[in-house]
Write a structure and sequence with these properties.
The protein is of the alpha/beta class and about 325 residues long. It has 3 domains: about 80 residues, Winged helix-like DNA-binding domain superfamily/Winged helix DNA-binding domain (Arc Repressor Mutant, subunit A, Orthogonal Bundle); about 100 residues, 3-Layer(aba) Sandwich (D-Maltodextrin-Binding Protein, domain 2), CATH 3.40.190.10; about 110 residues, D-Maltodextrin-Binding Protein, domain 2, CATH 3.40.190. Helix content is about 40%, strand content about 25%. It has 11 helices and 15 strands. It has a 5-stranded mixed beta sheet with strand order 4-3-5-15-6, covered by helices on one side. The chain has a 5-stranded mixed beta sheet with strand order 11-8-12-7-13. The chain has a 3-stranded antiparallel beta sheet with strand order 10-9-14, with no helix packed on it. Helix 5 links the parallel strand 3 and strand 4. Helix 1 crosses helix 3, helix 1 packs across helix 4 and helix 2 crosses helix 3. It is elongated, with a radius of gyration of 25 Å. About 35% of the residues are buried.
Length: about 325
């Protein structure tokens, strides 16, 4: 970790006698401030603060470390930065966390383009559906699809993720097609562990509708549920960018065109705005621009609107007979 930033964080904590106040003053998350303090104590080899429920105070080692940190910051402040425009060139490694479906369908081509533009940069992708701890797992950026943001992290809006309810023609032939959202309660619904496992939410002309759902299969990875839905296991609510291709080729059918599943935000989550490396800042700006373009969400627009759901095989056969 950056020792200058750690020294600045420790001085701010000592002067304000509050971790929360220091986080606000430094425009950092509370978790990042805690991480810098822990690292400073590790470097000092001693406990630097007495912590009580009401206030913080310096230990003897903390007093000595505070003096050293102030001298360090004074010296650092006198140093002239002469590297000029090179400071804005993305370089070095970024550790980025993302769920598998978003990484596979949307992020991978975006990352490839970013690295082509910035050959001095590198990205280490960590694929996991669970919310990661940025501090403990040393993640620079987590990209999440959610409406439930962690208040301890800084969130940059990157885009919007539409969803679509869908099922295979085989499932619908065997179990019937739901005509309203409330019919979903009587169907076998494939549920995602990290979002809406037992309650699917919809918007109908500005009215919010919540429908309790259940089924014989749940998973913590949406791609697994997509594959199961294609095999006829049940009805799934999927990101439109994932469901678009199987809807387009007839393996899935978009359901309930009169209602819209509750949309989710796509966010870039990180710990601090202070001394943000150019690689992270430029990557965030790049993703905002790219995610605003519907062309980079595979088949997502049509799938989200449930447009032209592919005809079932027997319907296509009837159409051929009519035109023969």
């Amino acid at each position: 970790m950056d020792r200058i930033t750690a020294a600045e964080v420790f001085v701010c904590i000592a002067e304000r006698a509050s971790m929360t106040s220091a986080a606000e003053a430094l425009d950092m998350s509370r978790a990042m401030v805690t991480r810098y303090l822990a690292q400073m104590e590790q470097w000092a080899g001693a406990r630097l603060l007495h912590r009580t429920t009401r206030r913080l105070s310096l230990t003897e080692a903390g007093e000595e470390t505070l003096a050293r940190c102030r001298r360090m910051l004074e010296v650092a402040g006198d140093m002239a930065v002469t590297i000029g425009g090179e400071a804005d060139v993305p370089r070095g490694l970024l550790r980025v966390a993302c769920a598998q479906s978003l990484a596979q369908d949307v992020l991978a081509p975006a990352v490839a383009e970013y690295l082509r533009r910035h050959p001095l940069a590198a990205i280490d992708l960590h694929i996991d559906s669970r919310p990661v701890n940025l501090v403990e797992e040393r993640i620079d950026l987590a990209i999440r699809i959610t409406n439930d943001l962690d208040p301890n992290l800084i969130a940059r809006p990157l885009g919007h993720c539409a969803s679509v309810v869908c099922a295979s023609p085989a499932y619908l032939q065997a179990h019937g097609t739901p005509r309203s959202v409330h019919d979903l309660a009587t169907h076998n619904c494939l549920t995602y562990s990290y979002f809406g496992k037992s309650l699917w939410q919809f918007d109908r002309e500005g009215e919010r509708i919540a429908v309790p759902v259940s089924g014989t299969l749940s998973a913590n990875e949406s791609q697994v549920l997509l594959a199961a839905a294609i095999e006829g296991a049940g009805i799934a609510m999927q990101p439109a960018y994932s469901a678009g291709a199987p809807i387009a080729d007839g393996r899935l059918v978009a359901l309930l065109p009169g209602v819209v599943p509750l949309g989710l935000g796509v966010y870039g989550l990180y710990g601090s705005r202070r001394q943000m490396p150019a690689s992270l800042r430029v990557l965030l700006d790049f993703l905002v621009e790219r995610f605003a373009d519907a062309r980079h969400w595979p088949d997502g627009v049509a799938a989200a609107k449930g447009l032209k759901s592919p005809a079932r095989p027997r319907d296509r056969a009837r159409a051929r007979n009519r035109t023969a």
